[in-house]
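Hi support team,

I've been running sequence recovery on a batch of backbones for a student project. Most finish fine, but this one hangs at about 90% for roughly twenty minutes before it completes. I'm not sure whether the input is malformed or the queue is just slow. I've pasted the structure tokens below so you can try to reproduce it. Let me know if you need the job ID as well.

Thanks,
M.K.
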């Protein structure tokens, strides 16, 4: 498969995982305005750029998928809903298991998830990263500005995710988690060089990732104890929306 090779987008995202959590000024309570703004950018990209692409993809699926019945005529968006539900369920499971472990160990001040929860959590995000890596590779077939917009949105999204995972797993994430996420990100990107996935599959992957992005951003912004900055979230979303609409 002939394909132009652009390594800077994948390297950019890899560096975010390696060094993003070292930006200590982003940690703490109240929530950093930069993290809230980054979340706003990610959500704006999904609603104004990714979802419109899914509309075109929906037409492709209806023309090329014989099992697309009337009941499933909007199944692309159902996949987005499924992605959102999966990550919501995952987050609730992690929080619930941490509470059980705290009660069991009588450590009320413990905020670090047990090892078993870590592998479930990281395993899910590893698959998520692999999907994003493959979509990133697919973006190289389109205009350069689309790849840049996607790379920026995903880099900021990874930054939000990394701080959320650090809060749950602390040093375990720093030592092992980020390496696993980088590995699967690169593996997903590398799959594009050896296997051309059908367009139908790419559309479904994009839909799942879109739902996941929305859920993973909102779960970091909504908890009351985070003291998130709504104005920063709105500003990030608004400015990136203006940029997307102007192109």
């Amino acid at each position: 498969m002939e394909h132009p090779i652009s390594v800077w987008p994948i390297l950019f995202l890899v560096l975010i995982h390696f060094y993003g959590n070292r930006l200590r000024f982003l940690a703490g309570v109240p929530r950093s305005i930069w993290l809230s703004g980054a979340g706003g950018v990610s959500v704006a990209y999904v609603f104004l750029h990714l979802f419109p692409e899914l509309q075109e993809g929906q037409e492709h699926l209806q023309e090329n998928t014989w099992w697309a019945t009337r009941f499933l005529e909007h199944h692309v968006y159902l996949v987005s809903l499924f992605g959102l539900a999966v990550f919501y369920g995952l987050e609730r499971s992690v929080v619930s298991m941490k509470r059980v472990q705290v009660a069991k160990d009588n450590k009320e001040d413990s905020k670090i998830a047990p090892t078993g929860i870590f592998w479930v959590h990281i395993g899910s995000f590893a698959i998520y990263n692999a999907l994003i890596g493959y979509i990133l590779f697919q973006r190289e077939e389109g205009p350069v500005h689309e790849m840049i917009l996607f790379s920026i949105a995903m880099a900021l999204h990874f930054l939000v995710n990394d701080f959320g995972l650090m809060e749950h797993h602390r040093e375990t994430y720093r030592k092992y988690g980020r390496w696993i996420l980088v590995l699967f990100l690169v593996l997903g990107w590398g799959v594009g060089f050896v296997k051309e996935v059908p367009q139908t599959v790419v559309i479904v992957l994009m839909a799942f990732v879109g739902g996941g992005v929305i859920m993973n951003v909102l779960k970091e912004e909504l908890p009351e104890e985070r003291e998130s900055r709504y104005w920063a979230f709105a500003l990030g979303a608004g400015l990136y929306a203006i940029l997307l609409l102007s192109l």
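--
Follow-up from support: It reproduced on our side and the slowdown came from queue contention, not your input. DSSP finds eight helices and no strands in the chain. No action needed from you.
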